[in-house]
């Protein structure tokens, strides 16, 4: 189905189940331990052997020699394999460091050997017996040191955020020089880790030249193609199955070493092999969100209209890697006739930087939205009013192009009212609660809405059940449920008559889970397939498809009606289709908007920050399921607290690795860190986005949270920290002497 004109009224608008807070249909499987995850697929791959990865012990250099004799002789060992033993493998999509390294070592903990043994413990013990001699080389591990000579580079995150090397509209330099109120400030964000619950894990099995990977991956079709490329085999010989995924956040957009080495190990061992990256391996072996150094300049008239805005971001990556596209939202978020954005990319030899939840906007807004707070302060304007004043209903770089739907102002105003923003004292350090200094902060949230082809197959069985099959994944987001709800709305049968099957590359290729595009695109693909199935049903029953009503397990047309199941009496009816998009995303800018409000308390003695209240107001088109959407947003807000206050991969600049490579030292928020969270969804639809009239929301919930917390800390303490995370050591020496 081609979607190239705005949606009109369709069966989804009945809103019998779409838009309702339906419980997760996968919930019972998860809480009873019956949802199969990649490392537990003994049901389909019996008697597996265990793989264990050895990671490189240097940040850059060459392997001079490897002695695997002791490992091979160790108890239970079946195979010991190094990259020196096999022909060079290809690179998968978006990989730019080999997933099986050697003799060249491109980064610390790059996989250089895999041991397959009868048990996990035997594999791990044997891996420790591998002796590696390295020729160590001097690597580049310091972003700040490399930033000065980093070249300009354009790029995109591969999932929704991007910018050219330099983008200019009007005369930024002239307008900034002439502005009566201006800000020129630099902000830094650290390297961050996805820290998903389920580690990267794969069970692999070969049947002749056909490979099956039960794996944990967000993008099944990308993964299938990547595995084919890496091994140089036809894609039709590769199957990926990923029905349940314990979180990804972008860390599982692309296949990683677990998939490659489980497949290699299984090929040599001639039996199924399961392999999980251990937690201490994940942080340096896989990908991370790259650190940024961001300079922002804003100039305004005395009454607060922005006349000049510039955002420059420098990040680092391995040779061939991409920049963190932290300037992308600045191209679209606020008005202003004179604009400039630029990105620089330093070559570093740290592990591979890549997409992490809302790549671009998440770190970009952490900087931009502090800058907006600083400007409001200079102008003597309320931070909400300043943002409202500089709203734009058109793409500020191309004023002839409007947003499909944009209600940032509505989010800010409603949020201010619900949060009690009028009780905020604009003067910092004025509000106390015992030993605590209390403050409020606000930020805008912004994330683009991406349209991408998505397919599905639906089958009506003789028993009246409808089965939906698509390679769409559920990474903890609720895909099963919203896809089921879509089929209910379209086919007029209750949810318990719908079977949703996901994550198998034998099913039609979907949008997958990334860039907050999963919900809107995958349900639209299911919508398209259901339209076809409705046509087939009507034809079988001899009804006119155009006026047929599917409800209560029946099909009605004029004064005729028949049970839906009757259409499948002679055999299953199957329909397959995909949603494919025309030009609407080009003619109109499609984005999602939020306002984040936060109240913090900062301990006047220790400078410890505690978040007290959070509110997100989101404008993201139709909300398909307010319960699962809320869960996405509160999870994202929690991640925002981590980004603001805790998360930082500490770089060892001599040896080139992230030191805190476990969850004891890479801190993320726990329940005790998270206070009352409220989420409000604006009641809106976006007919330009799809027949579902929905947009993404899972990443929007993160975008801006960090800055709202930073701004609240400033309101509480009077201290402006421009270097994340805002740990107490950065506040302590500036704290008012009030104990
Ligand atoms: Mo992503 S960074 O999985 O949208």
Provide a compact summary of the structure.
This protein is of the alpha+beta class and 739 residues long.
Structure notes:
The structure is a single chain. Helix 9 (361-379) runs parallel beside helix 16 (705-717), helix 12 runs parallel beside helix 13 and helix 15 packs across helix 16. With 739 residues, the chain is of the alpha+beta class. The protein starts with a strand and ends in a 7-residue tail after the last helix. It is globular. The mean pLDDT is 97. The strands form eight sheets. It has a seven-stranded mixed β-sheet, sandwiched between helices. The longest helix is centred in the C-terminal third of the chain and has 24 residues, at 518-541. It is built from 17 helices and 32 strands.
Beta-strand residue fraction:
25-35%
What overall geometry do the principal axes of the alpha carbons give? globular
Largest sheet: 7 strands, mixed
Query: In terms of per-residue confidence, which ranges show pLDDT below 50 for 5 or more consecutive residues?
Result: none
Indicate the structural class.
alpha+beta
Strand order of the largest sheet: 4-6-2-15-12-13-14
What ligand molecules are bound, each kind once?
dioxothiomolybdenum(VI) ion
Helix content: 10-25%
The end-to-end distance, rounded to whole angstroms, is 67 Å
């Amino acid at each position: 189905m081609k979607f190239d004109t705005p949606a009109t009224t369709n069966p989804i608008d009945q809103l019998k189940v779409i838009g309702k807070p339906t419980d997760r249909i996968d919930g019972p499987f998860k809480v009873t331990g019956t949802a199969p995850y990649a490392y537990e697929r003994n049901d389909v791959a019996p008697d597996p052997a265990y793989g264990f990865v050895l990671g490189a012990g240097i940040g850059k250099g060459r392997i001079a020699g490897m002695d695997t004799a002791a490992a091979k002789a160790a108890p239970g060992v079946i195979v010991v394999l190094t990259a020196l033993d096999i022909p060079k493998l290809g690179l998968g999509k978006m990989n730019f460091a080999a997933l099986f390294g050697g003799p060249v070592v491109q980064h610390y903990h790059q996989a250089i050997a895999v041991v397959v043994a009868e048990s996990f413990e035997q594999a791990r013990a044997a891996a420790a017996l591998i002796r590696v001699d390295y020729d160590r080389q001097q690597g580049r591990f310091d972003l700040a040191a490399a930033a000065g000579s980093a070249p300009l580079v354009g790029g995109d995150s591969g999932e929704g955020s991007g910018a050219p090397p330099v983008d200019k509209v009007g005369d930024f330099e002239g307008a900034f020089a002439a502005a009566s109120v201006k800000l020129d400030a630099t902000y830094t964000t650290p390297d961050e880790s996805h820290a998903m619950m389920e580690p990267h894990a794969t069970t692999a099995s070969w049947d002749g030249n056909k490979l099956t990977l039960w794996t944990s991956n967000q993008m099944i079709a990308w993964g299938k193609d990547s595995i084919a490329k890496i091994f140089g085999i036809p894609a039709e010989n590769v199957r990926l199955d990923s029905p349940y995924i314990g979180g990804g956040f972008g860390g599982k957009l692309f296949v990683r070493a677990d998939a490659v080495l489980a497949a290699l190990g299984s090929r040599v061992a001639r039996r199924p092999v399961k392999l999980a990256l251990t937690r201490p391996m994940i942080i340096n072996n896989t990908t991370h969100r790259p650190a940024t150094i961001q300079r922002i300049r804003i100039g305004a008239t005395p009454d607060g209209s922005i006349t000049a805005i510039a955002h420059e971001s420098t990040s680092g990556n391995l040779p061939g890697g991409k920049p963190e596209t932290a300037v992308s939202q600045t191209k679209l978020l606020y008005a202003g006739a004179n604009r400039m954005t630029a990105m620089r990319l330093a070559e570093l030899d740290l592990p591979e930087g890549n997409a992490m939840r809302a790549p671009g906007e998440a770190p970009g807004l952490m900087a931009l939205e502090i800058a907006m707070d600083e400007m409001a302060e200079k102008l003597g304007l309320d931070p909400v009013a300043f943002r409202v004043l500089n709203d734009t209903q058109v793409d500020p770089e191309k004023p002839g192009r409007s947003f499909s739907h944009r209600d940032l102002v509505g989010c800010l105003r409603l949020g201010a009212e619900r949060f009690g923003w009028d009780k905020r004292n604009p003067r910092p350090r004025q509000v106390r609660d015992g030993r605590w200094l209390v403050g409020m902060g606000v930020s805008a949230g912004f994330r683009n809405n991406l349209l991408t082809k998505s397919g599905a197959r639906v089958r009506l069985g003789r028993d009246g059940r409808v089965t939906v099959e698509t390679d769409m994944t559920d990474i903890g987001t609720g895909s099963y449920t919203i896809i089921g709800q879509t089929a209910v709305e379209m086919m007029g049968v209750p949810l318990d008559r719908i079977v949703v099957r996901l994550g198998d590359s034998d099913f039609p290729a979907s949008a997958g889970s990334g860039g907050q595009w999963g919900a809107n695109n995958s349900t639209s693909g299911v919508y398209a397939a259901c339209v076809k199935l409705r046509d087939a049903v009507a034809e079988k029953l001899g009804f006119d498809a155009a006026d047929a009503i599917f409800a209560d397990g029946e099909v009605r047309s004029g004064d005729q009606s028949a049970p839906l199941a009757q259409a499948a009496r002679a055999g299953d009816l199957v329909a397959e289709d995909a949603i494919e998009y025309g030009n609407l995303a080009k003619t109109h800018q499609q984005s999602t908007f939020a306002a984040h409000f936060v109240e913090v308390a900062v301990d006047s003695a220790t400078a410890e920050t505690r978040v007290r209240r959070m509110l997100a107001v989101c404008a993201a088109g139709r909300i398909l399921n307010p319960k699962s959407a809320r869960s996405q947003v509160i999870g994202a807000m929690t991640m925002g607290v981590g980004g603001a206050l805790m998360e930082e991969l500490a770089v060892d600049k001599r040896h080139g690795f992230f030191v805190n490579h476990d969850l004891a030292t890479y801190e993320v928020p726990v329940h005790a860190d998270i206070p009352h969270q409220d989420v409000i969804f604006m009641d809106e639809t976006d007919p330009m986005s799809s027949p579902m009239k929905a947009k993404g929301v899972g990443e929007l919930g993160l975008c801006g949270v960090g800055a709202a917390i930073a701004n609240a800390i400033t309101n509480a303490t009077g201290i402006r920290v421009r270097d994340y995370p805002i740990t107490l050591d950065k506040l302590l020496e500036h704290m008012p002497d009030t104990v």
